[in-house]
User: Fold this.
Amino acid sequence: MIVNAKQLREMSNVMRADALRALVSAHSGHIGIVMGAADIVTMIFAVFLNCEKNRYDRFVLSAGHGSAMLYSVLNLAGYDVGDLDSFRCVGGLPGHPEYGIAGVAATTGPLGQGVANAIGMAIAEKHKKTNGTVYCLCSDGDLMEGVAQEAIGFAGRYCLDNLVLVWDSNGLSIDGVAQGDCDIDMRMRAAGWDVRVADGNDFDSMYDAFSMPANGPVFIRCNTVLGRGTRLENKSAAHGFGLSDSEIHNLIDSLDCDAGRRLWGLLAKSGVRMDVGGEFSVVPWVFAPNVSNEMSTREMSGMFLNKVLEMMPDILVGSADLGDNTNVHVELSRDITRDDFGGNYINYGVRE
Assistant:
């Protein structure tokens, strides 16, 4: 389906309207990211996310506080996520995304976690020799987290050119100006990433940034405005639920449109949905190693792991610079490198 910038804007506004309905139903949640970053998510889902049989792209929302936006776009794209009016209700859609909800690729909420999850998915796609791309949307807060920076360094070392990390860069956090510790673009380049910059509310600008061939993992700084189009635009107060119900209803009325909803309907009918809720395979077996009272638990663990790798060759393991000490690097281990993802062992280097 071919769409232009005007149509993408209509689709994005419908997604905003549905997300705001969920927020006003719960009378809580995060308005700022919905209004500021919905265009980015629309660009990814409507133009770049490819879920056909021979390609399994993923989308991870590391900025998990934007869950209403995620549920909205998944619902519009044809996933059965449940009733958006159940947002933040007991037994309904949770306040942060949880794996198991249709289309949700990872449980996120603690900032930085989704970045690391996405990088793990990217290396898994490399290992499986698919051509799937992993897209991840992160916030200023995500990039302040150590877990994100450690994973970012790892992705650069392994040259994961099937990974696109998009930064919703609005310069604000709850307490005011986002406390960035460094020049993020420069840091990402130093870590081996292909850095690009776009206007996160301009579809032509984003299309140019997303469509360039990848030279390693791609990092796109999308400059956005928190709470765009509201009276709290570009203010920290826009982060949470800072508008009255009447203001939100007025926004919904101004954003919703039949043309955008029809376009989402066409997309939902034409696309093959991602399978992100598959069950893990379980191989029943009994392994009784020949052990003695003098054998340490790490030695027994190594014997067990070697047997697991023999029976389940798709299992990947790794260690933070202690593979031999902890018996995680065993006889059947074969290192994964940036030139060969066919192994089963990852040397993470020292990591928390």
Notes: The longest strand covers residues 163-169.
